[in-house]
Amino acid sequence: MAELLADTCGFRFLVLFFNCMLTFGSYFCFDMPSVLQDTFTQRNNCTNDSKSFHDDKTFDSGFYGNTSSPNVTCNNCTECLGMSEDNYNLLYAIYAWTNAVVVIAAGFLIDKLGNRFGVFLFSFLCVVGSTTFAVGVMMKGTAAMLPLMLIGRLIFGSGNGSLTIVQNRITAYWFRNKELAMAFGITLAFSRLGSVLNFFLTQNFAQIYGLQWTMWGGAMLCGIGFVSAIVVSSLDKWGTKQRGDDETLRSDSKKLKFTDIRHFSLPFWLLVLAIMFFYNGVFPFVADASKFIKDKYDLPKTTSAYLAGAVYDVSMVVSPFLGGLIDVIGKRGILALICALLTIPVFGILAFTSVYPLVATLWLGITYSFAAASLWPSIPLVVSQATVGTAMGVTTSVQMIGIGISNLVVGEILGKNLTAVERLTRWKYVMIFLLANTLACVATTLLMNITDKKRGGILNLSRKQKLQKLQDVTESFNSESGTYDTDSERQPILGPRHRSINA
């Protein structure tokens, strides 16, 4: 460790690797219910003309059928949990709502107490949450199953959303004014690698080893994230001390107040809304995509999972390259607007045509990758280094509020006890709802670009232009009074010295 030089490219990319591994396992776990949606919601549907059989309480509960009775026919599901569609979508909604409540406080705590505190606490919560969820699955057929699963998702949500914030904060510190968008793209790619492997492996793993071992495997992957937290916190501590920033960052953290949120600019808030509306279309779709594709296109469960996972396949492959490209050309706000516009046809295809679903999922994967590489790295550009955690927390909170509402709306639209024809109609309504969110994203990103242009166009600057602006703003800083020459120069681009966006 003593031989590592913190200012070298190799050191910051070593930090980046272990920083990426923080969320690999948790992203694998996040969408495991999506891949196994049929297993979660299917019941042992048994039929028998005997009244005594239909009066059996176990049958009515939907967990088991009285297969010992003659003239009984059941499906082949041996581990199905018998959850309703509403309860299944509640697994995603409670994750989103938990994030919405926790991440604001988490972001502020990370800014106040530092990265090391954040990575240990939140990676540990991911392990506890995924473990509790696995225990809930073991309790199938009992009244404790659903509460334990929901508690597990709640704890998991408290950790995973907050862990992403501290991950982004570490990335923003080590790559500010360098390969920032590329670094964000690489962290996204690692996270999506977890999601992609989930869509490719989980269904087959569950068929071979069973549902319970599948859930425990996910918990073990979260344990890898905890080990990575130990490593990255050590590297971060060593690096900041070697660069002489440790005391400065600690001093800025002590001065930080939650009320500094009032200094966040209008472009930041429009950026927050743009992220929320775009993700309102992506995440609720992915959560139900396997079931949707199976219902509408009559494809096998495994194939449906593969097709749904194509969204993340594309993101995993192209995100690092897109980040590097955006670092060079800039145009983050413009690219976000174009992505929102190009996403409109995706939900139109899914709602109104019978085009093979891979076309739509690949298309969505491309626009999602560009949007993520454009929007999230823009946050450190419009807030100061000292408030990045708080800004990420606010953004994630608003995002998760939107996703939570969207999951509940999707659950209500789908309903329950529908015929095959009615279900297809309801799926069309779901796609129209997701399309409406995309249209709202178009309007928001348009306003964001207009507002940002009036304030100097920081979102659309390339790396070279940012460095030039940094030099210009630094030269105009009045060292005696500690103020800027003009309001237009009050940008957070100077970094850790400045506590709030307008300070």
Automatic annotation (TrEMBL):
Residues 12-455 form the Major facilitator superfamily (MFS) profile domain. InterPro entries: MFS, MFS_dom, MFS_trans_sf, MFSD1. The keyword Transmembrane helix applies. Residues 478-503 are annotated as: Disordered. The chain crosses the membrane at residues 9-28, 90-110, 117-139, 145-168, 180-201, 213-235, 264-286, 306-326, 333-352, 358-376, 429-450. It is a multi-pass membrane protein. Keywords: Membrane, Transmembrane, Transmembrane helix. PROSITE patterns: MFS (PS50850). It catalyses: L-lysyl-glycine(out) = L-lysyl-glycine(in); L-arginyl-L-alpha-amino acid(out) = L-arginyl-L-alpha-amino acid(in); L-histidyl-L-alpha-amino acid(out) = L-histidyl-L-alpha-amino acid(in); L-alanyl-L-lysine(out) = L-alanyl-L-lysine(in). One of its GO terms (molecular function) is transmembrane transporter activity. The keyword DNA damage does not apply. Pfam families: MFS_1. It is found in: Membrane. One of its GO terms (cellular component) is membrane. Lysosomal dipeptide uniporter that selectively exports lysine, arginine or histidine-containing dipeptides with a net positive charge from the lysosome lumen into the cytosol. Could play a role in a specific type of protein O-glycosylation indirectly regulating macrophages migration and tissue invasion. Also essential for liver homeostasis. Homodimer. Interacts with lysosomal protein GLMP (via lumenal domain); the interaction starts while both proteins are still in the endoplasmic reticulum and is required for stabilization of MFSD1 in lysosomes but has no direct effect on its targeting to lysosomes or transporter activity. This is Lysosomal dipeptide transporter MFSD1. It comes from Patella caerulea.
